[in-house]
């Protein structure tokens, strides 16, 4: 199975949101989509899921234009985890996960045995088996995100699209969630803001700026001070750590953002050493 974007562009309200983007993830890889707010990350994911149609170019599922693929087949092959999900309904975790089996139901219902097995496996993969009967509103933010991933896994897809899944999570849950994603036997495309998390967990990175791809490749090839300055408008130091096999990014505050204190000193970080980074 493969899900590729081939020279896709998308115009919304007269503005070019995605500009001639090609994305071909290798099977089993975790690809990180990087870029500041408004760079086109979420829009590209929506195009790849078929929620919107490109103005030009095509999204291909196993070489077939997504527009001609039945929605049920797309739902069985491609799963999506959004930034956040919520509901006012008192629903159990297991029921949330079981929603992932809807694409596998036919006119006469589904295979109950297969459904139960898929739900059980998804709960175990995400470490939520002991919370299967717990109500949604009692879960923490990290647990809700894991439940959404479990729902996606219950679909038994080959492709997983995640739109900033670490937003609003503390560092522990960010690490746990991304560690889980990278262990899954799926091809994953995940939009992220944190460059160090992207370098830590992603096999390949694609950087978007104003809707266009400005860099792509392995983290140590993509994350350079020059690119960070160009795309994010900040100064950064990038260090290669051979022992960990990845790069680490530390940022320098812009001088004009420093705030004078009453004693005349300038308030703001002035450290020259690297901030600690949690390794995988």
TrEMBL record:
Keywords: ATP-binding, Nucleotide-binding. Residues 3-235 form the ABC transporter domain. It comes from the Bacteria. SMART domains: AAA. GO terms for molecular function: ATP binding. Pfam families: ABC_tran. The keyword Nucleotide-binding applies. SUPFAM superfamilies: P-loop containing nucleoside triphosphate hydrolases (SSF52540). The keyword Nuclease does not apply. PANTHER family: ABC TRANSPORTER ATP-BINDING PROTEIN, HEMIN IMPORT ATP-BINDING PROTEIN HMUV. This is ABC transporter ATP-binding protein.
């Amino acid at each position: 199975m493969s899900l590729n974007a081939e020279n896709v562009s998308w115009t919304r309200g007269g503005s070019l949101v995605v500009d001639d983007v090609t994305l071909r993830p290798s099977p089993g890889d975790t690809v990180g989509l990087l870029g500041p707010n408004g760079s086109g990350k979420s829009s590209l994911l929506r195009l790849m899921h078929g929620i919107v149609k490109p103005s030009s170019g095509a999204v291909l599922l196993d070489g077939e234009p997504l527009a001609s693929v039945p929605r049920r087949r797309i739902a069985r092959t491609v799963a999506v985890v959004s930034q956040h999900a919520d509901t006012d309904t008192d629903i159990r975790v297991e029921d949330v996960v079981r929603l992932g089996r809807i694409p596998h139901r036919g006119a006469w219902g589904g295979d109950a045995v297969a459904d139960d097995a898929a739900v059980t496996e998804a709960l175990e993969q995400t470490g939520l088996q002991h919370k299967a009967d717990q109500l949604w509103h009692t879960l923490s933010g990290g647990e809700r995100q894991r439940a959404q991933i479990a729902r996606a896994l219950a679909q038994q897809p080959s492709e997983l699209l995640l739109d900033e899944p670490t937003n609003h999570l503390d560092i522990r849950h960010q690490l746990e969630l991304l560690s889980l994603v990278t262990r899954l036997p799926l091809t994953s495309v995940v939009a992220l803001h944190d460059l160090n998390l992207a370098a830590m967990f992603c096999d390949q990175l694609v950087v978007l700026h104003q809707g266009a791809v400005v860099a792509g490749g392995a983290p140590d090839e993509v994350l350079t001070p020059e690119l960070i300055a160009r795309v994010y408008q900040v100064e950064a130091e990038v260090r290669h750590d051979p022992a960990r096999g990845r790069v680490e990014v530390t940022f320098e505050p812009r001088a004009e953002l420093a705030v004078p204190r009453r004693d005349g000193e300038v308030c703001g970080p002035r450290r020259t050493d690297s901030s600690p980074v949690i390794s995988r």
